[in-house]
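Field log, afternoon session.

UNIT: design team B
ACTIVITY: writing a sequence onto a fixed backbone
BACKBONE:
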């Protein structure tokens, strides 16, 4: 039996956290290449990106392999076609400026940006591209397992602790950038952590709140920071009560002036639990940022979330975990696994059998169904890839619940229980 009364904690980190700075730059590289493909008439299906970023005191290093339109290439002194670094440097500087770094140890204009991108490995390209000739669909860009999750704890069908941890930092970031009162003196680097008490399996109250945020005023202490941030925290929590005996840990170590990559080095892909479900669901281990969507680490994780969310939205279950697995160069998933955590109205096996008939789960099918060949990824790099609103530019398409009707109809059609299973999904 699943536990119904317990405490659960999740954390989030802001866009100015060193690792998130790197995620943002890596995703700006993805967006730049997709934008350039669209601008030059290059087939967006041919785009390939695997970009990694390292950031430290006034230094950014961008490395990886890409397949880009000719306008992003140049000839070296030996007459070879190589990546032109200038546009990628500019993209990195714009990202750092937008995040808000203009401090001595990390400044968008002064930081040295090294671009070490090179053309995609022919061996990897062969595994992805040649599979299309053999199977009709491009193969997965790598092997691996991906998980999706949804639950009915919040309006966006996300686990409450990670949902509210993100909300706190998003509100503080918006206030900082708008220059609202003392919030204008907060810095870009911050972390939040929320502990939720569950009663009968549902969020009941917040029992612990942790927030550490960079500030630009050298004379601020923990009490002053709490005065500034507490109204935003309470606004972010909305209708979820704060326990009378809730413990508040606001800048518990005291002063936090030196932040971002000047305070601690950052790397792409080190915040994969923050990016997903805050530890409330399994994680396959693959990071998202800096990758085009032939990489199933990213696209299949988006599809798994999409399917899980639609299953919960269709009221087939109150909680749903999905695992997909892939092999490099093979188009269709090797396995599909569902777990409704004893909350299902129908069997997991039934829905496992239905899903491949509703959605093509090859990389090609996923990219087409979710319309992923777009420059929509920079905005995913902070405050979570899931639990966000789908937008007109095509971003967060995996958060739509447009599969609900088809799911319900398929269950009614397939049900061998007849009345009971059909009634459960009406």
């Amino acid at each position: 039996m699943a536990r119904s009364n317990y405490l659960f904690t999740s954390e989030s980190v802001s866009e100015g956290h060193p690792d998130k700075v790197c995620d943002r730059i890596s995703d700006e590289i993805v967006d730049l290449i997709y934008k350039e493909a669209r601008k030059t008439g290059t087939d967006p299906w041919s785009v390939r990106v695997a970009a990694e970023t390292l950031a430290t005191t006034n230094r950014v290093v961008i490395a990886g392999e890409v397949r880009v339109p000719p306008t992003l290439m140049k000839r070296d002194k030996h007459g070879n076609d190589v990546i032109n670094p200038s546009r990628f440097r500019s993209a990195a500087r714009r990202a750092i400026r937008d995040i808000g770094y203009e401090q001595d140890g990390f400044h968008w204009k002064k930081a040295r940006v090294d671009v070490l991108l090179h053309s995609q490995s022919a061996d990897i390209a062969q595994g992805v591209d040649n599979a299309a000739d053999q199977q009709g669909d491009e193969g997965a860009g790598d092997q691996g397992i991906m998980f999706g999750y949804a639950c009915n704890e919040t309006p966006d069908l996300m686990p409450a602790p990670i949902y509210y941890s993100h909300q706190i930092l998003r509100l503080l970031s918006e206030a900082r950038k708008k220059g609202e009162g003392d919030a204008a003196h907060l810095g870009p680097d911050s972390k939040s952590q929320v502990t939720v008490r569950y009663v009968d399996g549902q969020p009941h109250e917040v029992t612990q709140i942790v927030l550490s945020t960079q500030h630009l005023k050298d004379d601020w202490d923990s009490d002053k920071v709490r005065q500034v941030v507490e109204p935003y925290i309470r606004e972010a929590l909305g209708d979820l009560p704060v326990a009378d005996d809730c413990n508040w840990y606001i800048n518990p170590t005291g002063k936090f002036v030196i932040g971002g990559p000047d305070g601690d080095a950052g790397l792409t892909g080190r915040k994969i639990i923050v990016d997903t479900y805050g530890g409330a669901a399994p994680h396959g281990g693959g990071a998202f940022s800096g990758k085009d969507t032939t990489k199933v680490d990213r696209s299949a994780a988006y599809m798994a979330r999409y399917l899980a969310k639609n299953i919960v939205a269709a009221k087939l279950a109150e909680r749903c975990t999905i695992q997909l697995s892939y092999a490099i160069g093979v188009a269709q998933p090797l396995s599909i696994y569902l777990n409704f955590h004893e909350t299902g109205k129908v069997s997991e096996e039934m829905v496992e059998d239905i899903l491949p008939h509703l959605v093509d789960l090859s990389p090609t099918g996923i990219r087409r169904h979710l319309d992923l060949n777009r420059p929509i990824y920079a905005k995913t790099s902070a405050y979570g890839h899931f639990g966000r609103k789908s937008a007109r530019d095509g971003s967060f398409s995996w958060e739509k619940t447009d599969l609900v009707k088809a799911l319900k109809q398929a269950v009614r059609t397939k049900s061998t229980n007849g009345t009971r299973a059909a009634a459960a999904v009406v």
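LOG NOTE: The CA atoms of residues 140 and 328 lie 5 Å apart.
NEXT ACTIVITY: expression trials, pending approval
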